[in-house]
Automatic annotation (TrEMBL):
Positions contributing to NAD(+) binding: T84, T122, K271, R334
Residues forming coiled coils: none
The organism of origin for this protein: Natronolimnohabitans innermongolicus JCM 12255
Keyword tags: NAD, Oxidoreductase
UniProt lineage: Archaea, Methanobacteriati, Methanobacteriota, Stenosarchaea group, Halobacteria
Designated name of the protein: UDP-glucose 6-dehydrogenase
SUPFAM superfamilies: 6-phosphogluconate dehydrogenase C-terminal domain-like (SSF48179), NAD(P)-binding Rossmann-fold domains (SSF51735), UDP-glucose/GDP-mannose dehydrogenase C-terminal domain (SSF52413)
C-alpha cells in the first residue's frame, strides 16, 4: 500500500520505518528539514532500539521523507502523527493538528481518487470529526464520506520499546466512519493483526479517541495508587514492594505498573491526564479522582527531598542526583520527576551534582539556568557527596560502589538494586 505519514517525530518515524519494513511504500512529510535529510540519508532522527537498521535499509527508497505535502497525492492513506501538546492552562493545544490538517486538505484538493485520513495523534473525543474533518473539507473542497474517509487509530507504543510495541501490540484500535476505511486499515495492519496476541478493536471514532486517554489515565492512576499504598506502607514500616508483588499475583490486578517511588513523568501521561481533566470539566464533569491522581504524583519528589533532609542538613550540602531522564532507556527529560527533585534541592540551598548516562545534554540545553553541576559518571557525582538520591532506575546504578562519599546516605526513589550494606543510611521513598 502507498502510505503517507505527516510528522516525523517519535511516533511518525517509528511507524514510517515499521510500515516500510512490512512492505509498504511510505512517504514521511515533516516540516523540519534536518529530520527529512536525516531519514533520506538512511539515518534515524531519534534513538530507539530497532529503528536505525530499519531506516538504514529503507530510508531514501521505500521510506522517503519530504517537506512537500504534494507528495501525499501519490498515496492512498495518510496518518496524522502531529504533536498534541498542552496549552498553558493544561488543556489540549490543537494548533499543530489544525495546521497539518489544513496543509493536507490543500494537497488533497488536487487529488482525483479517494483518500483515507487517519488521526494517529492523541486527541480528545470529537477532534477527528469536528476539527480535522471540517478543515480537510474546507481546504480540499471534498466532503468526508464522499472522496475523503476519516479514521482514528490511537498509538500505544512506549519510549524505549517503540518499534517492538508497534509491531507486537496487545491491541490495534480502529475507529472509523465507514466499512471501507475499516477494511483498508485491516489490510494495512494485516501482518500485525495475524499475530494471535494482538486483538483488533473496531469502534466509532469518538470511542477510539477516548480509549487512548482512558488507557493512559488508567496506567497513571495505577502508579499513583501504588505510590499512595507505598506511602502508607512506609508509614507502617512495611515493605511496599513485597506487598504489591503479592497483590499483583491477582490476575484481575496484574503485576505490571506496580513500581512505587518518584511517580510518572514523560511526554504522555502528564499532558494526557491533564487534557482529559480539562476536557471532562469542559463537558461539565468534575474528574475528582484524576485530580487526586495528579496530586499524589506531584507530591512524591518533595517527599523524597523531605526524607533526605531527615539525615542531611541540605543548606550548602553536596547532593548526588542519580538519573535525569523520565525513565531508563531514553534521553527524554520532559516532565521528568528528577527535575522536580533538583528544584526542591536548590530551593533548600543544596548543591546538586547530577549524573545521567544519556540525558545530561538535554538538561543543559533545555534548562540552561539550572544551577546544577553535572558529572561524567555516577562515581564522580558521588565523590565527596553528603548524600545521594536515585531519581531514575537506570540498570547501571545497581552496581554502584559508594566509597568516595563524605557520608554514605542514599534515598532511593526508584528501588534500584544497590548494595545497601555498603551504606550508612539507605531509605526507600515508599518502602
Ligand atoms: N511519544 C510517544 O511515546 C507517543 C506514544 C503514543 C502516542 N503519542 C501521541 O502521538 C502524537 C505525536 O507524538 P510524538 O511524540 O511523535 O511528537 P513529536 O513532537 O516527537 O513529533 C511531531 C513531529 O511533527 C512535526 N510537525 C509539527 N507540525 C507539523 C506540520 N504542520 N507538518 C508536518 N510536520 C509537522 C514536528 O516537527 C515533529 O517532528 C501526539 O499526539 C502524542 O501524544 C506519542
Ligand atoms: O510501575 C511503574 C511504571 C511506570 N512508572 C513511571 O511512569 C512513567 C511512564 O512510563 P511508561 O508508560 O513506561 O512510558 P511512556 O513511554 O511514557 O509510555 C506511556 O505513554 C505513551 C504515550 O501516550 C503510551 O503510548 C504508552 O502506552 C504509555 O505506557 C515513567 O516516568 C515511569 O518511571 C512508574 O513510576 N512505575
Amino acid at each position: 500500500m502507498h502510505v503517507s505519514i505527516i510528522g516525523s517525530g517519535y511516533v511518525g518515524t517509528t511507524i514510517a520505518a515499521c510500515l516500510a519494513d512490512l512492505g509498504h511504500e511510505v512517504v514521511n512529510v515533516e516540516i523540519d528539514e534536518g529530520i527529512v535529510e536525516t531519514i533520506n540519508a538512511g539515518e534515524a532522527p531519534i534513538h530507539e532500539s530497532g529503528l536505525e537498521e530499519r531506516i538504514a535499509e529503507h530510508g531514501g527508497s521505500s521510506l522517503r521523507a519530504t517537506t512537500d505535502y504534494a507528495d501525499v497525492r501519490e498515496t492512498d492513506v495518510t496518518f496524522l502523527c502531529l504533536p498534541t501538546p498542552q496549552a498553558e492552562d493544561g488543556s489540549l493545544e490543537l494548533a499543530p493538528m489544525r495546521a497539518g490538517a489544513e496543509s493536507l486538505g490543500r494537497a488533497l484538493a488536487e487529488k482525483d481518487d479517494d483518500h483515507l485520513v487517519v488521526v494517529k495523534s492523541t486527541v480528545l473525543p470529537g477532534t477527528t470529526e469536528e476539527v480535522v474533518g471540517p478543515l480537510l473539507e474546507a481546504e480540499s473542497g471534498t466532503q468526508v464520506g464522499d472522496g475523503i474517509e476519516l479514521a482514528m487509530n490511537p498509538e500505544f507504543l512506549r519510549m524505549g520499546t517503540a518499534v517492538q510495541d508497534f509491531l507486537e501490540p496487545d491491541k490495534v484500535v480502529v475507529g472509523t466512519t465507514s466499512e471501507g476505511a475499516a477494511a483498508t486499515l485491516r489490510e494495512l495492519y494485516d501482518p500485525i493483526l495475524s499475530r494471535e496476541e494482538t486483538d483488533l478493536v473496531e469502534t466509532d471514532v469518538r470511542e477510539a479517541e477516548l480509549i487512548k486517554y482512558a488507557n493512559n489515565a488508567f496506567l497513571a492512576s495505577k502508579v499513583s495508587l501504588v505510590n499512595e499504598l507505598g506511602n502508607v506502607a512506609k508509614a507502617y514500616g512495611a515493605d511496599a514492594y513485597e506487598v504489591l508483588e503479592a497483590v499483583g499475583l491477582d490476575d484481575r490486578i496484574s503485576s505490571q505498573f506496580m513500581r512505587s517511588g518518584l511517580g510518572w513523568g514523560g511526554s504522555c501521561f502528564p499532558k494526557d491526564v491533564d487534557a482529559l481533566r480539562a476536557g471532562a470539566r469542559e463537558q461539565g464533569y468534575d474528574p475528582e479522582l484524576l485530580d487526586a491522581v495528579v496530586a499524589v504524583n506531584d507530591a512524591q519528589p518533595r517527599r523524597l527531598v523531605d526524607l533526605l533532609e531527615n539525615y542531611v542538613s541540605l543548606e550548602g550540602a553536596r547532593i548526588a542526583v542519580l538519573g535525569l531522564s523520565f525513565k531508563p532507556g531514553t534521553d527524554d527529560i520532559r516532565k521528568s520527576r528528577a527535575l522536580d527533585v533538583l528544584d526542591y534541592l536548590l530551593e533548600r540551598g543544596a548543591r546538586p551534582v547530577a549524573y545521567d548516562p544519556v540525558a545530561v545534554e538535554n538538561v543543559r540545553e533545555k534548562h540552561p539556568g539550572l544551577e546544577v553541576e553535572y558529572a561524567d559518571s555516577a562515581a564522580a557525582a558521588l565523590e565527596g557527596a553528603d548524600g545521594a538520591v536515585v531519581a531514575t532506575d537506570w540498570p547501571e546504578f545497581d552496581d554502584l560502589a559508594f566509597d568516595g562519599m563524605a557520608q554514605r546516605i542514599v534515598v532511593d526513589g526508584r528501588r534500584v538494586d544497590i548494595d545497601r550494606d555498603a551504606l550508612e543510611v539507605y531509605e526507600g521513598l515508599t518502602w
